[in-house]
Amino acid sequence: MVAIPMQINVNGEARSIEADPKTPLLYILRNDLALNGPKYGCGLGECGACAILVDGRAVRSCTIPLSAIGDRQVVTLEGLASGEELHPVQRAFIEEAAAQCGYCLNGMIIATAALVAAKVNAGEADIREALRHHLCRCGTHMEILAAARRAVRYAQSERQAIATPEAEKQA
Amino acid sequence: MIRDEEQHGSATPEAAGLLCVYSAGADGRIYLSIDQAGVVRAFNGHVDLGTGIRTSLAQIVAEELDVPFSHVEMILGDTRTGPDQGATIASETIQVAAIPLRQASATARAYLIDKAAAHLDAPRDRIILDEGVIRGSEGENWNIPIGDLVAGENIRLEIDPEASVKPVSSYRLVGSSRPRVDIPAKATGKWTYVHDVRIPGMLHGRVVRPPYAGFDHGDHVGNSLIAVDEASVAHIDGLVAVVAIGDFVGVVATREENAAEAARSLKVDWRPAPHQPDLNSPENALRANPATPRKLADRGNVDLALAASPQPMDRTYVWPYQMHASIGPSCAVADYRDGQLTVWSGTQNPFPMRRDLALLLDIPEDLIVVERLEAAGCYGRNCADDVTADAALLSRAVGAPVRVQLTREQEHAWEPKGAAQVMDVRGGLDLEGGPAAYDFQTRYPSNLAPTLPLILTGKVPPVAEVLQMGDRTAIPPYAYGNLRVTVHDMPPIARASWFRGVSAMPNTFAHECYVDELAAAAGVDPIEYRLRYLHDPRAVDLVRAVAERSKWVPHTTHGTLGGEGDLLYGRGFAYAVYVHGKFPGTAAAWAAWVADVAVNKKTGEVAVTKVICGQDSGLMINPDGVRHQIHGNIIQSTSRVLKEKVDFSSTAVTSKEWGGYSLITFPEVPDIDVLMIPRQDEPPLGVGESASVPSAAAIANAVYDATGIRFRELPFTPEKILAGLNGDEPIRTQTASRKRWWRNLGLSVAGSVAALSGLATMASPWRPAIPSIERPGSDVYSAATIERGRLASAAGACNVCHVGNDGTPFAGGRRFDTPFGAVYATNITPDVENGIGGWSYTAFERAMREGVSRDGHHLYPAHPYTSFAGADDADLQALYAYLTTQQPVAQRAPETRLKFPYSFRPMMAGWNAMFHKAEPFKYDASRDSQWNRGAYLVETLGHCSACHTDRNALGAEKRGAAHLSGGFADGWEAPALNAVAKGPVGWTEDAFFDYLRKGHSNQHGSAAGPMADVVKAMQPLPDSDIRAIANYLASLNADAAPDKAEAQREAALAASNAAKTEAARISPRGERIFNGACASCHGDDKILSSLALNSNLHANTPDNLLQALLTGVEAPAILAQTTGREAPEVMSMPSFRQTFDQRQLEDLAAYVRARFAPDKPAWDDFAAAMQRVNAAPH
Hints:
heterodimer; A: DNA polymerase, domain 1; 2 domains; B: 1178 residues; Aldehyde Oxidoreductase, domain 4; 37 helices; 33 strands; 34% helix; AldOxase/xan_DH_MoCoBD1 (chain B); metal-binding (chain B)
């Protein structure tokens, strides 16, 4: 285990790290960058508690070696909001009270954020499939599903809001 | 430390301007404080386990005090000042622990009103406290915030048990849904869980647990450690300490990954764990467990009634071991300095744990501060206390704060389990179809599970205490005239403690299935039958309400809902009141279920499609909170009933992750309809567990309704249901084995010795040394030559074998296990002493072409000089130039010492005479230059055949048809590169190119193991060379063509898809492991190519699959970074070496073989494959 200096891009900022390149990214995010969003759940890529976005895709930071990140864009739960304004998926989860203990919440929000970005018309089956490998033990599934549906609606109305002025311009 | 003060502020009762309410007596504990800003801090000894009591308790305080909800801050489980209210168990926070808090609030309110009355000189009945402000009842212009009444004074009150509380009718806050106060912070990453505590100078610890995983009593406990080899981790950066006390072993390092690495690498010798009774089918073990019968009820004459019953029905119901399965493994931070201890803990029991820590460390309790922070939800006792004690021991050892994070495997293996339980019912019908008698016996092997480090260190003897915990809801709710209830109090077998529903859930499983069986036998609708014997009016109301809500259709036989296709539909009912605490206990909320199921008669899968659940909770403080608890209970208990069971080996728990212990997933979650009975005028009841309790019986009764078969043992896995439906057992297919060359080696060693001895005399065994030279200067070679050498080195992937164990290029030392013994790669840096710095080109060339070292000794053909012999002079010269201009490394690689007779190197001369042809590569004039370039690279510098060709008994590559038809390397099978290849899709030029260039072909999958290193090493080669190699290799696969390959790919995917059901039938446990552990990356529609395309699944042996599972696969990530390949996978496959046992690997292998290579026979002789793979270095 030899620590070497590296740079990674997290939540829009270049961050300097000195660590063994094999170190799981999760430890870097939590211990070196003090980001508490991603949580250690299994270390095996099974439960999704440590999910982050890498170039917009939801991945499990416990199984990503630091060396694999290169210049890809890493976004954690902390990086979803723009300033004081919450990400619509975060808003949806808060409004639906979609947490009991909340330990899995990071993964649920990240997975939903990736889903709504990739598929604006995501239906019930898409939502359940996107969350299939995200485990919740408290049984918050009903509230999480409601939050994900709400997040899809938010994404759709946002898309419409963007589309409408453009359409007007074209007209 | 990074923490939100607002989350965990603490009152300072001594500060100026504070009103505090304490419990009675000189040593009273604080329950409430109000400061001059009007901020209310309320203390409760119970903690929030994820249920939202932080919010509900604040509602109770705000209501009773008449202050705004936002002014109340809850401080839970604070050991410095807050009240000791025992462990947060039995759903009793609202029902029990909130009572003094409410009284404290009423006390403060009365005081404030009195004080305002005095201050304003107004009658008390004119004073109104409203939203934290004193006002007048007749519009007086008073406007005094309560903080003003406190300002400048220190007021100490005692809780007045007589202080009048508000009537429910005037409640405004209580009974209305309030958003949870914690969720916004949790949804933005701002909440501080115990896992997120960081304090200055904090080190990271990991523990290493003994091999008797999940068992906590017996003479071996605390006495199994033989030795800890500290040298085995001495090389790890930042290692601070290795600590061993009894069977407690831990490591501390400056960085978390280094602590984790040290815990994985630490060599610990343990005595073998003793054998345990079989807990996979726990009935026999529980019956054999020593027990003391305790009679809870005996009325009527049970024996007489049973003897007289015309239709006796004796039934046994079995509950498996289950686990809390917290999503976050437990974590704690401890800071032991100067004989004082502070811990940051997710404990359920701050006060009892403090007593444990005092005992563990031999310090007085009052020198210990427990800072309680939220952790991942637990539903009973998980490892939160254990890890706090672990951290305390490690912090004491190093004199610095230490954070300890348990691994997933440790939490699974060691958490105190929800115990198995066996319930026997003897009964039957009387002449009128009523219940003749009910003779109920229950066995529940559990206690409170002593904190693990206390036992591991010998502070507490490893003796299994017997507790009376099997009696929860042991009394059935029905008015059976002849009733006998006996609890067999018994010690635990596996480590066990309370888990949601405790013994009530299994007891209710028996009660509610049995009454259903009685109804069916009597030919009466199951709800109607229950109502005949259910006399509790609130229970009757609830049952009727739920029946109505579900549109229950009375029926007297099963099967009335029919089915379609392979599905059978059924509907079941169950009811329970959860009784907790010491017998006869306290009743929490009443709950009743109607469950709808669809049973697939072909696969045995049970889907719970809808649950209608009614609950009478009395007064609901926060109705939304109650609803969420009901949802949570329904989903969690459905998961437990359908899926959950802890697996054991003969010595330990083997369910150590989410494949070995599966939880319900989103697609399986049923529709839920919750009916909350309005009872706001009744006292509040615990709602944390009640809705779980009827689950198992409701689902079992629904499965009976669908199939006509009673299933009396959980969980309802497909194989269990299928066996019940078919009356047979799942089949494991067996097929004949195919032998492999080196397994026959034992037989041929004698022959090979004779052959080698004879040959040794035939050739010239002694070769002269070539004099050493001055190390060539680095300016001798042109940049172009060195560059050509760099590419030659890339083509030869020299650094894959010659890399130093610490990653230093060309430093040598890697060990290769061959059938003849271990061979170590040499140092090929230009170091004169240890490397090839003193080698002339002549010496280098002789080593490369003839396999003779500079000093004249023969090299073994692990160095593939048989391939290099054909290399162009210019390439070898350039390679020499490149290597001799690298950084010298003064490090000697271990010497290869083969077993006799192979240790006699001169014998290699005879070997060479037989097997080595030192001749230049022959170009084929009939082929184009690209093909020839590829052939040259493959057959000489690339030495592909060294791994991809089978070897004979003497370790020489076979010739003819065997060439590139598959071999072995480094414990991995190197698959055939020609048409003999086993994969379902032919290898086209493009596929070879993608694979070799990017480490991944979407028609085949990713490079792993040694091949991943080769792909990485070949990165400097230009695309044209990779293309040439691909062109040549594709020519060996004449049948492969792009359109054909695409068709083959689609056919393989379709076949695999069609094989799902059959594969699950062949290996149901394997399917669960795959779904839980593998499918998050290897499931359908994931970014990785389907395993159906991966040649390793189609190979003759599971060696490569096992290699990937045990060592992990790092390649895709490495390649993703450097090549930006089309599938931007950045995740690596983790190693499951410390996670799966052999049985799990075998189950998984059986499943993936049947699922992804359905046309291939099942792998046999799995044990031999395990042995081979384990023998390979890792």
